[in-house]
Design goal:
The protein has 87 residues and is mostly helical. It has one domain. Helices cover 80% and strands 0% of the residues. The chain has five helices and no strands. The longest helix has 20 residues. The protein is globular, with a radius of gyration of 12 Å. It starts with a helix and ends with a helix.
Length: 87
């Protein structure tokens, strides 16, 4: 994710981008994951994971918040794809 931070800036990647992404997947993940929880999941995974590892880490974080497995995996795929497009 260093390329993403280099392209858009660290503050954008850690604060603004996750809020934009959350708005897009909020209906999918429901009320189980608040924006604050999503930001926590995002910031824990974005620095250490890329590609499939990012997708897996986000899915794991969403499942830990009570999101059903299928929905968590779908949301994680959407998020990882969006991040991949931005890079």
């Amino acid at each position: 994710m260093a390329r993403l931070a280099a392209k858009y800036g660290k503050v954008y990647v850690s604060k603004t981008l996750p809020k934009i992404v959350y708005k897009k997947v909020a209906k999918l993940i429901g009320k189980k994951v608040s924006q604050a929880k999503f930001l926590h999941i995002w910031n824990n995974t974005i620095g250490v994971a890329t590609g499939a590892a990012l997708e897996s880490a986000i899915a794991k974080g969403l499942k830990a918040c009570g999101v059903p497995k299928g929905i968590a995996n779908t949301a994680a795929t959407i998020i990882a794809t969006a991040v991949g497009i931005l890079v």
